Amino acid sequence: MSTQREMTLDEYLESKLPDFHLARHQLQELRDEREALAAEAENWREAAAQYARNEDFYRGIVRQIGEMFGEAARTSDDGSVQEDVLALKVPELVEALLAHVERCRDVFSGLSEYWNGCEGMAAENAAQNATDVACDMLAELPETSLHHLKAQWQAEAVEHAMRLETHIDRVIYTNQLRRQAEEDA
Hints:
By secondary structure, the chain is mostly helical. It has helices at 9-16, 20-68, 89-115, 120-140, 143-163, 167-184. The protein contains six helices and no strands. The termini are far apart.
């Protein structure tokens, strides 16, 4: 009868492969590295998904701004009208609108000089210049965009008024809108 005990798999592998412990250690390191890489890959996937959501969100904002400009925001450089807003057109249109606002300020400051008591030739020149610039501005203004903005503002105002509880609240809101329109004019 033999007193030899049976070898475990690890003991057998150690006897046949001298670097078994080293290989086992390297295998564990590779498993750990694989887990770390899997976690990193998951983080990258989450970051990419968040980036895509953010991109969609900001693209939607640009699209909404472009829609306020109407057909001008959907018109390609070659003159063809696209179904969707062309994002590259939006900054150009906003820049043109800002230039228009600056010109309006100039006109109103000229009129302000006239209304605030300029006398003689200075008053006549200020009024004539303001009138000429205002006429030029109106000729340059895209009517479809203004109509769209006005209709949108009116729809929002009516929608808000309809949500008010009482008739008196609606009257107060209407008076506030009138005062605001008079101040903005």
